[in-house]
Design a protein that fits this description.
Layout (H helix, E strand, L loop, with lengths): L1 H20 L3 H34 L8 H10 L6 H15 L8 H15 L3 E7 L5 E8 L15 E2 L4 H14 L20 H4 L6 H5 L10 H4 L1 H4 L4 H8 L17 H14 L3 H10 L26 E2 L2 E2 L10 H4 L2 E2 L1 H12 L15 H8 L3 E2 L9 E2 L4 E6 L7 E6 L1 E4 L2 E4 L1
Antiparallel strand pairs: 1-2, 3-6, 4-5, 7-8, 8-9, 9-10, 11-12
Helix pairs in contact: 1-2, 6-12, 6-16, 11-12
């Protein structure tokens, strides 16, 4: 396209030289008309190039360093794929190389985790696997988590889980709707009159909690307002909400998915408002307490001093960061700290939500509301639903499964990324 623009500019220069040589009104008028048409075409082509750059810049770059990058680059062949899809492809590649799948045993999982450390150049990780009936299949730690090379423990090593916090917020919102305290499809101001949405949004259409939790509000990330508090003076969720009304969207509402943390702050504060409490207290009362998640904390700041020694250092490519990135200002979007063992309790609860045979399982949400929460609302990325839909606090993607009746199943998941930490549920 750039070559075409250069050729058109060259032709225009030649025409201008001819016009200077030929002093004829008819000839001059014709040449001017042609030049205007070519100028219009050049402007249109340059705008298309700018739009292409904008779309490419908006694509999320998977956090995949070193050895795995080349494999994923060849795999994607120019198409955007989610991290989960690429991790699945890597797993399928390993299975093929091993001559078939291995039994799902703790020993085999640890072996796979050790390979993952090498591929992604990671110092340590912990993982837990929960069966369809909520049973704990494995809970293991691999590698180290601090400068003293202390080993990672599934039940004791704490990690920031970042955006995996969003599913907890969405659960509390859907539970409040289940009890008739709010509606995810109504204007947020219906049940929270003092909320001030972005002015340009409220002038055109109403903003709902489904919009906020599906990343379809039209608002970009705007993360700088809470990541640069020394510049913006935004050091609390209340400050962030007050600033939000003065920020502009860059898309029309419900037009395109655009990942944004500030809208999940809105969702968390909305459900806290209708419950007349704080998001942190509500999380403890409705989820952490009932599930016995005693080593999970709403925010980085709420981690007790006596537990700080168990909090992993943040690393990237085995290089430690000097400090933690706090997400406490937008807590409902990504501030939680937990262990793999505690998150296994959460996973056991949600996989049994719609299991009628699990009467003794702790209930965090009704089956109907859970299905609403994990049902996709808008395509993400390449405008292709097969690459995944965003639901409310979860991704929902098609997944090849030989034991499924149709050969396909739903992959419901979410990830979290902070400086030096990655999580996935």
């Amino acid at each position: 396209m750039m070559m075409m623009i250069i050729m058109m500019m060259t032709m225009m220069i030649i025409m201008m030289m001819m016009m200077a040589m030929v002093n004829d009104a008819w000839w001059t008028t014709m040449m001017m008309t042609i030049m205007m048409m070519m100028t219009t075409m050049m402007i249109a082509m340059m705008m298309m190039m700018m739009m292409t750059v904008e779309v490419q810049a908006g694509l999320e770059t998977p956090h995949i360093p070193n050895a795995a990058y080349e494999f994923f680059r060849q795999l994607s062949s120019g198409d955007e794929k989610s991290e989960a899809a690429m991790m699945h492809a890597l797993h399928q590649k390993r299975v093929a190389e091993a001559g078939g799948p291995k039994p799902l045993t703790p020993e085999n999982l640890v072996e796979e985790a050790k390979k993952t450390l090498a591929v992604f150049n990671v110092t340590g990780l912990s993982f837990a696997v929960v069966g369809p009936g909520g049973e704990l299949v494995a809970c293991e730690g691999v590698g180290t988590y601090n400068d003293d090379n202390e080993p990672v423990s599934c039940n004791n090593t704490l990690f920031q889980i970042a955006s995996d916090t969003k599913q907890f917020t969405a659960t509390m919102v859907l539970k409040a709707e289940e009890e008739g305290l709010l509606s995810v499809d109504e204007d947020i101001r219906t049940f929270w009159p003092s909320f001030n949405p972005p002015t340009t949004l409220s002038a055109s259409r109403t903003l709902s909690l489904r919009d906020a939790m599906s990343h379809r509000s039209g608002m970009p990330r705007h993360d700088a307002i809470w990541q640069s508090e020394e510049i913006t003076n935004v050091d609390s969720s209340g400050d962030c909400l007050r600033v939000l009304q003065f920020l502009d969207p860059d898309k029309d509402i419900r037009y395109k998915a655009e990942y944004t943390n500030t809208m999940f702050l809105v969702a968390g504060e909305a459900v806290a408002h209708v419950r007349n409490t704080t998001w942190e207290n509500l999380l403890q009362k409705e989820i952490l307490g009932p599930l016995g998640m005693e080593d999970t904390y709403p925010t980085l700041d709420s981690v007790p001093k006596d537990a700080r020694s168990r909090l992993s250092r943040p690393y990237f490519n085995k290089h430690a960061f000097d400090q933690y990135l706090s997400l406490d200002t937008v807590a409902p979007a990504g501030s939680m700290v937990s262990t793999a063992g505690d998150l296994a309790k959460w996973l056991a609860a949600i996989v049994q939500v719609c299991d009628s045979g699990s009467a003794d399982a702790p209930t965090v949400l009704g089956c109907k509301q859970f299905k609403k929460m994990i049902t996709g609302n808008i395509p993400f990325g390449s405008y292709n639903p097969t690459y995944g839909m965003y639901a409310m606090g979860f991704w929902n993607e098609p997944y090849t499964a030989k034991n499924a009746p149709s050969g396909m199943a739903e992959l419901v998941h979410h990830g979290g990324n902070s400086a030096g930490f990655t999580s996935h549920i």
